[in-house]
Amino acid sequence: MIVLAVVLYRVAKYCLVYLMIVTARKTKTKFDDLLVSNKTAKYAAQLLPLWFIKHSVPVILVRFDYWEGIFATVVRVYIIILVLYIIRTILSALRDYLKSLRRFSDKPIDSYLQVIMITLTTYGVIMIIMLIFNTKPATLLTTFGAISAIILLIFKDTILGFVASIQVSVNDMVRIGDWITMTKFGADGDVIEINLATVKVRNFDNTTTTIPTYSLISDSFQNWRGMLDSPGRRIKRHILIKSHSIRFLEDLDIERLKSIQLIKEYLETRSADINKFNAQRNIDKSVLINGRNLTNFGVFRKYITQYLSHYPGIQKDMILLCRQLQPTPNGIPLEIYCFSADKRFENYEYIMADIFDHIFAAVPYFDLELFEFQQAVEPTNT
After folding, report:
1. Distances (CA, A) of 289 to 252, 279, 299
2. Domain Mechanosensitive ion channel MscS: where (predicted)?
């Protein structure tokens, strides 16, 4: 029986593997290629000799009922385990095939297949217990019901992970390839794997952070997918201007600033409107504060806006502004709010640095001063 079983296995293995390889070469789909690489045919070939052994044992051990029952149980248990292995190789091939498709590449395929495998394994374990102990399904289920609390405690993380995987997928919270930031776990990088229990993130320093899947719905995290899908990446940064350097502009100051091309037309138009307004109302301009006036801070804001609107690296179709924020003890914040047309990290940082290099150098032209914290030095007695 053993010799014939080995011969049947060799023949079945050769035929199935050869047939699967020939089929994989002739078809365009990659699924059968993945079945070959996962050795599905090798495991499936064992079913034929097992079927032969199962039907041969009762004939060989016809007068040995005790040993016949043991061998029959062993063969049936092995068949159940073998079927689980075959299903596992098919699911592995299906996982690799779905991940190769663009529309499934960012889905948590591992989580779903793990749930299917856990369910089938649980069913297989129940069948094996029933075979070994010759137990009825009702009795076994009653026993499992009595220890359900322990089972739930053991598989708590698995159950929570399964629920989280479904919610993450249905709500489209995270995809494979998304850049996420989760400060609690020190994660800041791209998602490379989503499975039933964990989410793996490759950080930008090439380290790997493992996050429990359930934490994605129980804790807060930041997903940068919206920024990557949008036309631009936001630049939001401010500088601090000393408040005592802000003043009204006199005629000589305006004439001097007209030499700056970006604001020449603005100064001419704005000055004409202000002079007309003051003249119509007989404003006494011997005191500069009377009537309407231009300030060096306001003109500087206009200059920055013009500079940004002409800068080639800025996305012109999105919000672009230079705004004044609430004054602070360290000065008056002047914030630049715009969007970089290039979202790549290196180019984004270069564009932002280039803009602020120019702004820092332009501040003195408007008789403004940047705030710099200086620690007071106590005089020493000599």
Report:
1. 16, 15, 17
2. 157-225
CA dist 150 and 380 (Å) reads 74
Assess contact for 174 and 220: CB atoms under 8 A.
no
The mean pLDDT values, 10 residues at a time, for the chain of 382 residues are 87 84 80 81 85 83 80 85 88 83 73 78 81 72 66 71 75 84 90 85 91 85 83 92 93 93 94 92 88 94 95 92 93 94 90 95 94 68 58
Rounded to the nearest angstrom, the gap between the alpha carbon of residue 173 and the centroid of all alpha carbons in its chain is 9
The two tokens of residue 350 are 């270069």
Amino acid in the structure at residue 327: P
Alpha carbon distance 48, 40 (integer Å):
14
Q: How far apart are CA 57 and CA 49, in angstroms?
A: 12
Q: Pick from 13, 9, 8, 34: which is nearest to 23 by CA?
A: 34
Q: Kind of pairing, strands 233-241 and 332-340?
A: antiparallel
Beta bridge partners of 321: 337
Q: CB neighbours of 286 closer than 8 A, spacing ≥ 6?
A: none
CB atoms within 10 A of CB 245: 18
Triad 200, 117, 10: Cα angle to 5°: 115
Tell me which residue of 164, 190, 166 sits closest to 177, measured CA to CA: 190
Q: What pLDDT is recorded for position 361? A: 95
Pairwise CA distance, residues 53 & 79, whole Å: 11
Q: What secondary structure, in 3-state letters, does 13-29 show? A: HHHHHHHHHHHHHHCCC
C-alpha atoms less than 13 angstroms from C-alpha of 109 in its C-beta half-sphere = 18
* HSE-CB of 289 using CA atoms within 13 angstroms: 0
Instruction: Report the alpha-carbon distance of residue 29 to residue 23 in Å, rounded.
Output: 10
